């Protein structure tokens, strides 16, 4: 299977490492902060992708100090939420589409992309990353990670 790729042309000025993470309720800010800080200290660009809406996740992303957030955007008309989603839902293959849209607006080339997730729903992005890491994975993702030799980590602590 051909993996979709994030541009890895290291000849482009500003090439860097990019770390993407799927944000879920199971990964508390306290537990994920050291991992994000480690990537930030290494000079990595950090981005959270989540199916959860922006109004919930933007304050969390800001407190974590991540560089960018791609979240599901609720539709608003005349200052009121409609109950519908604006644009492509940031879920499963939609995350690949939303990342491509984001990259059109933020042209930057990354030498290496690491993606962390706990959900089988993120398989399309995990497959596109240079390094896929399963964090406290659901059973389907755990099996997939084991079969593919992806690292499996826990943020739950002892």
Present the secondary structure layout.
Elements: E1 16-22, H1 29-41, E2 45-53, H2 54-64, E3 68-77, E4 80-86, H3 93-105, E5 110-117, H4 123-128, E6 131-135, H5 139-148, E7 152-153
Keywords:
alpha/beta; seven-stranded mixed sheet; 30% strand; globular
Q: Any overview of this molecule?
A:
With 158 residues, the protein is of the alpha/beta class. It has one domain (16-148): HAD superfamily/HAD-like (Rossmann fold). Helix content is 34%, strand content 30%. A 7-stranded mixed sheet has the order 4-3-2-1-5-6-7. The longest helix has 13 residues, at 29-41. It is globular and about 50 Å long. 28% of the residues are buried. The model is unreliable at 1-16 (pLDDT under 50).
Overall geometry comes to globular
What is the straight-line distance between the termini? 37 Å
Unreliable runs: 1-16
Domain module tally: 1
| CATH superfamily descriptor | HAD superfamily/HAD-like
- Which percent bin holds the helix content? 25-40%
Number of helices: 5
CATH fold type: Rossmann fold
Overall strand count: 7
Strand order of the largest sheet: 4-3-2-1-5-6-7
Largest sheet: 7 strands, mixed
Tell me the radius of gyration. Answer: 16 Å
Give the strand content.
25-35%
Brief characterization of the structure:
The protein is α/β, with parallel strands linked by helices and about 160 residues long.
């Amino acid at each position: 299977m051909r993996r979709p790729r994030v541009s890895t042309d290291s000849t482009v000025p500003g090439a860097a490492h990019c770390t993407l993470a799927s944000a879920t309720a199971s990964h508390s800010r306290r537990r994920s902060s050291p991992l994000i800080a480690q990537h930030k200290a290494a000079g990595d660009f950090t981005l959270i992708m989540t199916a959860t809406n922006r109004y919930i996740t933007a304050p969390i992303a800001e407190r974590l100090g991540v560089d960018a957030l791609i979240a599901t955007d609720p539709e608003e008309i005349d200052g009121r939420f409609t109950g519908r989603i604006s644009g492509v839902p940031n879920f499963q293959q939609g995350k690949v589409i939303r990342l491509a849209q984001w990259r059109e607006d933020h042209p930057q080339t990354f030498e290496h992309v690491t993606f962390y997730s706990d959900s089988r729903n993120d398989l399309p992005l995990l497959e596109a990353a240079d390094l896929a890491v399963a964090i406290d994975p659901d059973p389907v993702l755990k099996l997939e990670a084991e079969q593919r030799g992806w690292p499996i980590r826990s943020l739950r602590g002892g």
